[in-house]
UniProtKB/TrEMBL annotation:
Keyword terms of this UniProt record: Membrane, Transmembrane, Transmembrane helix
Superkingdom as given in the UniProt entry: Eukaryota
Transmembrane segments: 20-39, 51-72, 101-118
Keyword Transmembrane helix recorded: yes
Name the UniProt record assigns to this protein: Uncharacterized protein
Amino acid sequence: MIELSSVADIQFLARKGMTTGYEVMSLLTPAAYTAYVLVKRGRSALYVNRILRATWIGGAIGAAGGGALSYARHSSSTVDALQRRRMHVMYDANRLRLEDHAVIGGVLGGVLTTAIFLKRANVVNLILGGGGLGTGLGMLTHYGKYAVGDRPPPILSPSFPE
């Protein structure tokens, strides 16, 4: 029988996996889709609406895939391993800063993309796709800051087993 604490840990880790999947696919999908369209059909077939739609659909697929992979990975782990992993994820300052940059970028991307391309795309694609583009740019901002040495200080947890 599975303990309730391990069920909560699995759910938490699956949600974090979904977040990571969304962030990664929001970063990769626009570039991959643009390259695909340019190679297959040329520049005349490249539309803002289609890029934005591909971005949010790619992000949704990434969230589903990340959650499924995380659930599959953690569902067979021991209770102690799950607790250690959850504590590690909860107190990882680098990951927290990455998620903060991604959320800020997503909100700004959703608003700014809608304001800039209002007449060129569907409103749903503008908001969701712009949020995905902003999430990817927020991640790139985090990685750029990390590369130049702006690293977050570590967060010390009361019982962080190393």
